[in-house]
Design goal:
By secondary structure, the chain is α/β, with parallel strands linked by helices. It has one domain: Oxidized Rhodanese, domain 1, CATH 3.40.250.10. 27% of the residues lie in helices and 17% in strands. The protein has a 5-stranded parallel beta sheet with strand order 1-5-4-2-3. Helix 3 links the parallel strand 4 and strand 5. The N and C termini lie far apart (31 Å). The model has no long low-confidence stretch (mean pLDDT 95).
Length: 107
């Protein structure tokens, strides 16, 4: 079975976004509507995610989000990996905000 994956530009405008990066990465720049749950906390906090809609998962370049997507689908949730993560998200001009007061930065 292949993992569901989508390009950053194809993510629906009203998508439920889950960012699984670490707090420092999140603070430096993230999608405005995203929910932040670091990958290491996901199993413990999975009930915070909607069970009735698709979750689009982001990280920096797609590795951690691929793990999160695979696990979420394994437990019966509907999840899709965003190919290229926040780097692709920013590169195609999707909105990015910072929590630091500085310009958003996606390394």
């Amino acid at each position: 079975m292949t993992m569901p994956e989508i390009t950053a530009e194809a993510v629906p405008q009203d998508a439920y976004l889950l960012d699984v990066r670490e707090i420092e990465e999140w603070q430096a720049g993230h999608a405005p509507a995203a929910t932040h749950i670091p990958l290491g906390d996901l199993q413990r906090r999975v009930d915070e995610l909607p069970a009735d809609r698709t979750v689009y998962v982001l990280c920096r370049v797609g590795g951690r989000s691929a793990h999160a997507t695979a696990w979420l689908n394994h437990i019966g949730r509907e999840a899709v990996n965003v190919d290229g993560g926040m780097q692709s998200w920013a590169a195609v001009g999707r909105p990015v905000i910072s929590e630091t007061g500085e310009a958003p930065f996606i390394a």
